[in-house]
Every structure is written in C-alpha cells, then in structure tokens.
Design a protein that fits this description.
The chain has two domains: about 240 residues, ATPase, nucleotide binding domain (Nucleotidyltransferase, domain 5, 2-Layer Sandwich); about 210 residues, Nucleotidyltransferase, domain 5 (2-Layer Sandwich). Helix content is about 40%, strand content about 20%. The protein is built from 17 helices and 24 strands. Helix 10 packs across helix 15 and helix 11 packs antiparallel against helix 13. The chain is globular. It starts with 6 loop residues before the first strand and ends with a helix. The relative contact order is 0.13. It comes from Microbacterium murale. This is Sugar kinase. GO terms for molecular function: kinase activity. InterPro entries: ATPase_NBD, Carb_kinase_FGGY, Carb_kinase_FGGY_CS, FGGY_C, FGGY_Carb_Kinase, FGGY_N.
Length: about 500
C-alpha cells in the first residue's frame, strides 16, 4: 500500500516568459519545482504570438525532470494552467495551423473588433458576453485568422488555449473551462454559461465547440501515449484548468466574493470576484473560476516587461536598480512615466497608446527611471481599481501574488500609490501552485478537500505610508492628464510604427 506521505499533485503553468511546474504534497508543501524559460515572437508591431509546440515540449521536459528526480513521489493528479485568453487553432489531427495568438498584448484584431461591433451592436455584445470587444477578445482573433490567413482557416477544426492544449495532449479530451470561454468574446453567453450558437456559427462555424467544464473539473485521464512521454502514470486524472491569472487567484485564496487579486508578472493582472455580473466598457466581465462567481478583471500590458526592458537597456542588474530606485524616492525626482510601451489594456483600452517619459532632465539617472517605472505600474493599478469600484465592485481584501512580490520596494510603492493594504501569502510561486491545488481538490473525497488557507497562509501585510497619500493623489491626477494630453501624438506615432513594421 502506498504511503499518503508519498502522494503529490503536479501543477504546470505556461506563462508569457516561462513554463513552471511544481510537485506539491497533500499538505501544500512544495517538494520540487522546475522552470523552462521561453520567449514570445513579435513579427510585427502589435503582434505577439508563440509556437504552441513549445507548450507541450516544456510540459514533457518538466514532468520528466520532476518524476525522474523523485521516483518515489506518486503523482495522484495533474493540474494545468496557462496565459490567456489565447487563440490556438489546430487541424483535425491536432496540428496547429499557425502560431498561437496571445492575449490582449496582441492588438492585431482592431479591424475585426470594429466590424463585429458594427455588425452585432455594442449593447447586444455586452448583453450576451458581458464585455465590449477589445484586444482581449478571443473571438475577434479567431475572426482575424479567418479574414487574413485563409489557408490556415481552411484547415482549422479545433480551438485551444494553453491549459486546454495541455489537457488535450495528456488525455485526448477536447474541453475548455467557462472562465476562458467567457473571454472568447463575443462567442460565449455569460448568463447562460454556454457557447452562443448564433455568433459561433457566424464567426467560427467550421471549428468544433470545446465541451465546457469548470477549471477544477476532471477533463480526463493520462493516456498511455502521454504517459510514455511524460513519466506520469497512465490513468492519472487531469483537470481542465484555466487562465493563469485565475489560477494564481486560487493559489492565494483570492477567489471569494469581495477579493481582489493583484498578479505581479510580465504584465499586471487584477481580478475582482463577486456574485453579480458587472458590466463596464473599460474592464472585462468574465465568468469566475468556480460555479456561482463572476469577475471584473483588468490588466496592464506591461509591468515586469517594462522593468526588464530598463534593466537590459541600462546593462544593470536588479539589485543595483532597486537600490538606486529606493534612493531616488517618491516621485523619482520629478519623473512621470506612462507604462503603455505595448499599448494598454484596461481601463483605457487603447492598443495605440505608447510609453511616455515626462520631466526627464540631464540630471536624472537610471535609478530615477526605474523608480518612475515602478510608480507607473502602481498608477496603472490605481486606475484599474478606481474604475472597478466605480462599476460597483465590492473590494474588501487585496492579495498579491506572482514573481514580482519578491521585490519589497515594488510592493510598497503599489500600496503607497493606491492606498491599499496588500496581503502576501507564504507561497507566491503562482499559477502552477494553484493548478496543483485544484488537482488535489478534484480528487479529494467528499469533505476532505484541502483548504488554501492551510496550504498557503498569509505571512506578510504591506501597509501604505499615510504621509505619501496627498503626494500620490497629485501624481495620479497628472498621470491621467498626461495620457489625455499626449494620446493624439502617440496614436500618430503608433500608425507610423505599424507602417514601418510592414515596409
């Protein structure tokens, strides 16, 4: 008989810059982890895509590393997660017909968004799906492939996101979770929690509809073929999984009504959970990760991507930049950055927004720029939070998660700028840990499901400095006015960049 102490769940998340996997014990302890770094492709301005073969290859590599290094660890269930909403179309043999188009950072579908909005009507789109169409809308990206790449479209038969792609490769199940489906706007009916057939047939008619389940439901079992590749025993249950931001919320227990999750990563993501469907044109209304919940979500197009860009540009390392940014102080000695270096998602929904550095002088150094970049992401978070609350979101508790939470200065800057208290749990490894938790919950006997508060207790609380409240109120006003005052020029430059990228 197998000892319960040797039983683990495997959680794997495909992110924007890496794939991460963890082996987690029944009590939430992490036995081992593995990471595979990767990069996205940006073939044109506004395009962000990735070869989906990488997702499976990295899963296989991570699974083999962990199972080989820990041969006595019995994997009892597998959790999957991934960035999104992405659009991966595959043919009848599950071969991708083109690289996957990534989430809202990919802004290529502007013409399709305009056409679909005109054809369907903004009020009807919002009634059916909850949200207006933006660069985050998966359905518009499906329409882009239909319009722009007819050869690929002719072969397309199935639709995946990273988590559902892994579930397919592991189990042969063709499924998608409700949360991910609700971001395939306008193809999902949010109130009835089903595909909206009239619009699916109109814009994706040749593609078979994935069966809809919830993130923590079991999609199927590991096949013999997948077992031979991964080292995971055949017959092991695999959950359906969902988009990484929602799995991250699960990993820190920030998925109850009244919770707001802040995900610190390559981009910044915010998920507020409630019981009602809130609609506002500047945010994303989605189904929750679990039955009976709804989310109002938002995201910055750059956060960690912006600080990484500055690090590479200056040839520095993070400890140097953080020390200099701390010395720079609040306000970065008179600098203000708009963090729209890849356009912006919420709440301005402007793919043609561009990064702005205001107030720069010859006296400023790299530490000032780095401090201003941290403050820029914090100002973006504040803009989102204020928009959510204006739409009716009841935000009672804020939990921080993701790799960026390891940086104490960034956490403090966000609390100071927003005026929010943040709770930080013991484990901030993120979506892979949440996927492992969902897998453990899926196979638990009635009444024996683990509690995330036991797995991952809160260990740190970040409190805003009240002495900086007035200062950052003024800076936030300038932040909003700076965008309004520069957006026309930024749009002209964005148009020129698009022309240059195709020259």
């Amino acid at each position: 008989m197998t000892n319960d102490a040797a039983k683990y769940t495997l959680g794997v998340d495909v992110g924007t810059s890496s794939t991460k996997g963890v082996l987690v014990a029944k009590d939430g302890r992490i036995l081992a982890s593995a990471t595979r770094a990767h990069e996205v492709d940006r073939p044109h301005t506004g395009w962000v895509e990735m070869d989906a073969h990488i997702w499976w290859d990295e899963f296989v590599s991570i699974a083999n590393e962990l199972t080989t290094a820990h041969p006595n660890a019995e994997i009892t269930a597998v959790g999957v997660s991934g960035m999104g909403p992405c659009v991966l179309l595959a043919d009848a043999d599950d071969e991708p017909v083109r690289p996957a188009i990534l989430y809202g950072v990919d802004t290529r579908s502007g013409a399709q968004i305009a056409r679909m909005t005109d054809e369907l009507g903004i009020d009807e789109i919002t009634r059916v799906g909850g949200s207006t169409l933006t660069s985050q809308a998966g359905g518009a990206k499906i329409a882009w492939i239909s319009d722009e790449e007819p050869d690929a479209w002719t072969d397309a038969r199935r639709f995946f996101m990273p988590a559902s792609w892994l579930a397919r490769k592991l189990t042969s199940a063709y499924v998608l979770d409700h949360q991910s489906a609700s971001q395939t706007s306008p193809l999902y009916d949010i109130e009835n929690e089903t595909w909206y057939d009239p619009w699916w047939q109109r814009y994706a008619g040749t593609i078979a509809q994935p069966r809809l389940t919830w993130a923590g439901d079991i999609a199927g079992e590991v096949t013999a073929a997948a077992s031979a590749l991964t080292g995971i025993p055949a017959g092991t249950p695999v959950i359906t999984g969902t988009i990484d931001a929602w799995t991250e919320a699960v990993s820190v227990g920030a998925h109850e009504v009244g919770d707001l999750m802040l995900m610190y990563g390559t981009t910044m993501f915010l998920v507020a959970t409630g019981a009602e469907t809130l609609r506002t044109p500047s945010m994303w209304t989605t189904a929750g990760a679990f039955p009976g919940t709804r989310n109002l979500a938002g995201g910055l197009s750059t956060s960690g991507a912006l600080t990484a860009w500055l690090k590479d540009l200056t040839g520095s390392d993070y400890p140097e930049l953080l020390a200099e940014a701390e010395a720079s102080g609040a306000g970065a000695r008179g600098l203000l950055i708009l963090p729209y270096f890849a356009g912006e998602r919420t709440p301005i929904q402007d793919p043609d927004a561009r990064g702005i550095v205001a107030g720069l002088t010859l006296e400023h150094g790299r530490g000032d720029l780095y401090r201003a970049a941290l403050e820029a992401t914090a100002l973006g978070v504040r803009h989102n939070v204020e928009t959510m609350r204006a739409a009716g979101a009841d935000i009672r508790r804020i939990v921080a998660v993701g790799g960026g939470t390891q940086g104490q200065l960034w956490l403090q800057v966000i609390s100071d700028v927003t005026g929010l208290v943040q709770e930080v749990p013991a484990t901030t490894i993120g979506a892979s840990y949440g996927a492992a938790f969902l897998a453990a919950s899926a196979i638990a006997a009635d009444g024996a499901a683990p509690a995330i508060a036991d797995w991952n207790p809160i260990t740190q609380t970040i409190t805003p400095n009240p002495d900086l409240r007035s200062f950052y109120d003024t800076l936030f006003d300038r932040y909003v006015r700076l965008y309004e005052g520069t957006k026309d020029v930024a749009h002209e430059l964005a148009a020129e960049q698009r022309g240059a990228s195709h020259a």
